Each structure stands twice: as C-alpha cells, then as structure tokens.
Fold each of these.
Amino acid sequence: MTLNNKVIWITGASSGIGKGLALELSKNYPCKLILSSRRQDGLEHVKEQCNKNENIAILPFDLQDYNNMNFVVEKALNCFGSIDILINNGGISQRSLIIDTAIEVDKKLMEIDYLGTVSLSKALLPYFIKKQNGHFVTVTSLMGKFSSPYRSGYCGAKHALHGFFDALRLEHDKDHIKVTMICPGFVNTDIAKNALTGNGSQQNTQDTATKNGLTVETFSKKMITAIKREKFEAYIGKKEVLGVYLKRFFPKLLHKFILKSQVR
C-alpha cells in the first residue's frame, strides 16, 4: 500500500510516537495529516516542525470524552474532506502495584486507552464502510500480548484493544477495511514520566528500560513500514519482543524471566 495522497489522522500527536510519525510522514510522504491530542499548543509546535504546513490540520480533543466522538469525526472529515487511515496512538500508561492502585485509576486507563479509542473508531467506521475502504492502525503495546508487574490496568486496556480490533477486522473484511495492531516495546518517550501511579498522580520519573529503548525516529520508520505492508500485527522493539513468542510457546519460562528482570 502506498501512503501517497492519503489523509492520515494521528491521535496522541503532540509528543512521543505520535509526534515522530507526524515528522516522518510530513518529510517523506506526499500525504495530508490531521494531528490530535488534548493540547493545542503541543499540536501547534509539532505542526511548525513538519514539512508542508498547508497539508497539516490540528484537531484537539480528549479521548476520555468518549461520548462525543461523532462530533470529533465530523470535524476531522471537514479538515480535508476525507480520511484514509486512523492511527489510534493516544493513551496513557501506569506504574503501580495492583494492591496500591485505586479503582479510579483502572477506570481512567480503560476510559482513555480502551473506550476512547474504541469510541473514536466506531464513530469513523460508518464512513469507512460507505467508502468501502479504510485502515485502522492501533498502537497497543507488547503489554497487550503479555503482562508485567506495575502495569495491571495498562495491560488490561491494551489486551482489550486486541480483542476488539481483531473482531472488527473479521466483521469488516467484506468492506475492505484493514486493521493493523502496532505493539511497541521500549521506546524512548515520556510515557513513563506521564504514567499514572496508584493514586492517579503522574510518576514524573523516567525508567532505565524506556530510556534505553528504540529512538522515536527508528520506531516511526519501522511502524510506517508495517502500515504500508498492511500487517495484522507488528512487534517493534529490541530483545523484549521475544516475550511474545515465549508467552505463546513457553509461558512459564516467560513468567520466570519477568520475575527476574525487575522491570519497573
């Protein structure tokens, strides 16, 4: 699949992976971009760094406001008159033990990471069906394939996304709608700094594994390749990617490995 002349909508575009995708796409592909996140100032800053500003629209909204997505999709369609690819990248992480995590934190993770993404995708789905073409690209995590301590709510939401989008792919194959699940390992972004702790506050510290992860530029290039190939799933990271295969074939070995790794 070519990305030339496509309209690509990216959520979570004000920083991290979303920002990296916007920069990479604007500099190397003749496409139009719609950039979304909660922060308009952050989106404006990303737009300034992109090439061909006339091909970039910004649309701030909050994924947690998942009852308002029909209106958001209407505004997105008015930007360039069409949408070809929705990259569901927006979300938030967590760093706290289950016993220390208030249920309100689990609820917030589900509302943002799962319900917000699902609601946005469902609001756009009728347009893709009418057009008989479209591509949902959803950024989950390797934590959507196996789990790790301190991330129970995050893992739950990411696992749920796989269940939903696998069903969407099956139901709408007849409508020529594609689904690609992107599963990052460690990427050097602020995801750990912005992660919620047990009481809902931000962690505000970086962890070693995240700091030593793939650069955003390297990750973005690999992710774009997976999108162009219309892969069902792509696992992008370093040695942590092996966890997917250990979970499938040697789950007890993976369990022991994670216990020893003390990843936080």
Amino acid sequence: MLDVSLIQIEQWVSAFMLPLFRVASFLMAMPIIGTRLVPVRIRLGLALLITALLVPILPKPEVMSGLDFNTYLVIAQQVLIGSALGFTLHVMFQVFAVGGQLIANQMGLGFASMTDPSNGVSIVVLGQFYMMMTTLMFLAMDGHLIMLNIITQSFYVMPVDVVNLGAIKFIDIALAGTWMFSGALLMSLPAVTSLLVVNLSFGIMTKAAPQLNIFAIGFPFTMTLGLLITWLSLSGFLGQFELIADYALSLIGQLLEVPHG
C-alpha cells in the first residue's frame, strides 16, 4: 500500500488547484475562448488540461494549511491576475468594434445593428465585420499560443504562493479604456474624415440650392461612398492590427512587472 501523508495530499492539491484558479479565470475573461460561442464545460476542460500540463514545470508553491484566511487571499489573487490578463486582451478586440461603430455612424449605418453571438450585445454590422477579421488575424498570427505563453510566464513573475494584491497594476487596466477609444479613433480616422468631407459637400449644395432634396440624394450616396471607402481602407487593416496588438502585448507586459519597493 502507498504510504501517503496528509501533508503530501495538501501539497498535491495546492500545486494543482491554485494554478487552476488563475488559468480558469484567464480562459473565462479572454477573447474567443471566453465568449458564449464556447460552452462553459469546454472552457473548464481546457483549464484542467492546461493546468495539468503546466503544473510539472511551474515553481512548487508552499503547502497551504487548510482553508485559512491566507488561502482565500491567494485564491482571490489568482482570480484577479487571470481576469486582468484576459480582460486586457479583450480590450484589444473592442478597439475594432468601437472603430466600426464610429465609421458606421458617419456613413449612416448606425441603425444596422445585430446581436453579437459571442457577447450577446447589440453591435453594428460593420463593427461585427471588423471583429470577425480581427479574430481570424489573431488566430492566423498564433495569438492563442501567445496567450498561453503569457499565462505561463505570469506564474514565474507572480508565483501563486506569494500574497501581494498590489502586484496587479489596476491603474493600467483602467487606463486601457482610454487607450481603447483613442485606438478606435485612430483606426477609423481616415474613413471618418473622408465621410465628413462628403457631408460638408452636401451641406454646401443644400445652401446653394435649397430646392434640392438632399435627404433623398445624400443618404444613399453617403452610404455607397462609405462602403467604397471602407473597402479601400482594408488594405491597411493588417498594419493597424499589428500596431494595436503590439501595444496590447506591451500593456500586458507592464501588468506582469512586479513593483519594487
């Protein structure tokens, strides 16, 4: 018979369960996998599989003495770290959704909305199109492998047995919201500027010829020209995606930096 002590069982459980909380929180908050399109059971199975593969190569945590207050703090920290890393990646995807919203409102397609099956919220058709392109590019550039590398490196930067809630830079996560809107504005600026010139031209035409029914002419013309401008701007979509993805990864790198002092 195997002679297994209670301390060894606690060590095995701690070595597996504590990383599991971080990995599961990361998968629940990250884009693509953390959406409604992936059932919760599959996400839980992926979390168990990834944790089982990571545990042998991770630093061994200290044995937790039962469910004391320190154990709850460690569990809460793992959930916060995983959720923060996944949320930061999710913000990168929302940059393109907000940019599509700005372009659609300028070209008159703001009313053409649909329910996003991945998030369950209403989003304009152009924003959904940009989200689909971003997802395909993210997978084509091995973004899913980069995410696994990020969650693996986080265990070496912030070990699971160190209680330090100040290690997560919440101010950087809050500032990611400002970066989301600024990135969306920069992405949509060429198309929005072009459509603004078109609307100004129609305004001048209305002033010069008041009898002209500008609503009957301007709306379909603006929509058609907006679709043409969107099609022409797709040639630079890859460069914009690379810049935004590089900034998002650098932001995650800042989150993984342990503060000194």
Amino acid sequence: MRKFCLFCLCLFLLGACKESQYDHKGRTPLVELDGNFLYKEDLMAVQPAGQNRDDSLLFAEHYIRNWAEDILLYEKAQNNVPNNDEIEKLVRNYRKALIMHTYQQALIHQKLSEEITEEELQEYYEQNKAVFKADAPLMRGLFIKVPLTAPQLSRVRQWYKDERQSAVEHLEKYSLQNAVKYEYFYDKWVPASEILSWIPLNTSDIDTYFSRNHRVEVKDTAFWYFLNVAEYIPTGAQEPYEAARPLVNDLVLNRKQVEFLNKVKDDLYKQAIEDGKIKYCEN
C-alpha cells in the first residue's frame, strides 16, 4: 500500500500544474492550493541528501502534506479569528521593528567595524573593576600526566615545580615521548574545574585546598599526576584582566553601539526639525 501511494505521488508530481495562468518566474510548480504554489525548487532545497528513491518520495509526501495543512489551517483561522485589525497592527509593528533592526545592524557593521583598541578595553576594566568577579575558580600553571613506569620521575618532580623557561623546555621535550597528557597554561587563565577533571583529586573545598597547596602530586594504579599552580583565583575574587577580557570587549562594544545609534537618531531628529518635517497640530 505504501509503495502504491508513493507511486501515485510520483505520477501526481510529474503531472502537477502543467498549465497555469500564473507567472511562476521560471520556477517549476508541483502543487497548487487556492492560488498558493509549492515549487519543485523549494522541495529540492530541503530534501535530505543521500536518500534512496523510496525515502525521497516519502519525504516529499510528508512535506507536501505539511505544506497543504499549514495553508488550510491559515485560511480557516483567517475566517474565524476576530480582531484582524489588531493582528495587522502587530504585523506592521513587527515589520517596522525588523526593518529598523536590520538598518541599525548595517550601520553598526559599517561604522564600528574597526577593532576596539587594547587601551580602550584596559581603561574600561580599570574603571569598572567591581563588575568583574570570578564566578568560578581560575588558575594558571602547568600539568603533566605520566605512567607509573615512566623514566626520570625524579627529574619530572624538579622540572614541573620550576617555572623558568629552561625547566619548561626540559619538560616539554620529555613529554613528547613519555607523557600521556601535558598542558602548559602559565600564560592563560583556565577554569579550575577543567584542570581538576584531569586529576584524581578528592576534595570538596578546592578554594581552601589550593590556598594551601600550589603543587600537587597524586597517583592512581596506572599514572602519576603533577600540577604546578602558579596563581589561583577563588570564586568571588577580583577577576584578572586577561580572564575578563572577552566580557570587557562585549561591554565596550555594546556601549559604543548604543552611543552610536543614539547619535544617529538624535541627528535624524534635529535634521527633521530643521527641515520643518515635524509639525505640531493644534486642536
């Protein structure tokens, strides 16, 4: 029965809307319903790739039915929903807001496309430090994970504690052949939760733990885990500029956009006053 329906659908699509007084502007009509047309190009645009013939026809059957049901429901609603004037008002307001938003975004892209300077960001951060508090612990440091049987473990214990470049280079070379995981993050802030996901460290209060321990050595049945925490920021403490920078950038950009759009509207209003376009009518 399913194959018969698909066969009928195929014949229907091949013969649909052969002749019509409508101008389809080069498109190929497949189905007509009360002057509404579904075109072959529309169907092909949403047709999933890689389907076999039966699946493709089945998809077309469901798509055409949904298309027709939407039109029928819309026509029924038009005839039965009161206050069409109120709906038209909402549509006009939405269209107005959409056009204004599109124009504003085009203006912003045209006028504010240049990159915000680092000086602007740092100045904003310094003036609004109270806003930037760490909502989760952060840390900078170095981590290495090696098998229990790895060679030169005594050297590893020396190198991972030493933040000098020479020690870091030794550890990087060592990690190429011996480490299961090696992460250098002295130069960036990383959420402490991410680091702790690498280590079998059992503690319920990480703020207290890392306020006392900046070097961690733990092992399980297969690996040694070494962590050197160069700096730790607990929850609620002042967030460093480097960590806060993405949010600072968003806030500065948003402020510039608001200021720019306010100026555009103010200039338009002043020009309209000057041109005599705005007239106050007396009762």
